[in-house]
TrEMBL record:
<dbReference type="InterPro" id="IPR029068">
    <property type="entry name" value="Glyas_Bleomycin-R_OHBP_Dase"/>
</dbReference>
<protein>
    <submittedName>
        <fullName>VOC family protein</fullName>
    </submittedName>
</protein>
<dbReference type="Pfam" id="PF18029">
    <property type="entry name" value="Glyoxalase_6"/>
</dbReference>
<feature type="domain" description="Glyoxalase-like">
    <location>
        <begin position="1"/>
        <end position="47"/>
    </location>
</feature>
<dbReference type="InterPro" id="IPR041581">
    <property type="entry name" value="Glyoxalase_6"/>
</dbReference>
Amino acid sequence: MDLYAEDGAAEVARLLALGTTRTDWRYGPEADDVVLADPDGNNFCVIQKEAQWFPLRSEQH
């Protein structure tokens, strides 16, 4: 599962506070994602995306 976030850093911080953990992962130099693990050990990505990826939220601003 991947999660796309307008503010990736804030989303990662929120998920870490809820009990996820950082996964040891080899990131490329321009990585726009962070790999986390849920409490059961399942890996997932939080991916930073620009506002245009969120048309409904962009229209509300």
